[in-house]
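Sample pair:
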Amino acid sequence: MNLLSRVGASAGLAGLLPLLLLYAASGLVAPLWAVCGLVVVWVVLVVFALRWFRRRPWAVLAMPFAGVAVWLALLQVGESFLGWTA
């Protein structure tokens, strides 16, 4: 694993940390059960990131972007179909 790959994977892991705050703050819009589900999704992302750190470092770098996309999609679906409002 070269230095560039290691830096990329580290940046991906660092990008997942503020995502937890974003997921937890969803309680302003989503009900508690949905926020708990989002936190579980975040934990799964972190577990995959740790497992893929050496094998797929560039996938780890993309995980924060995928996490934001999942967060936006779930809140949009909740607002559209389940009536979640702020």
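The CA atoms of residues 45 and 63 lie 7 Å apart.
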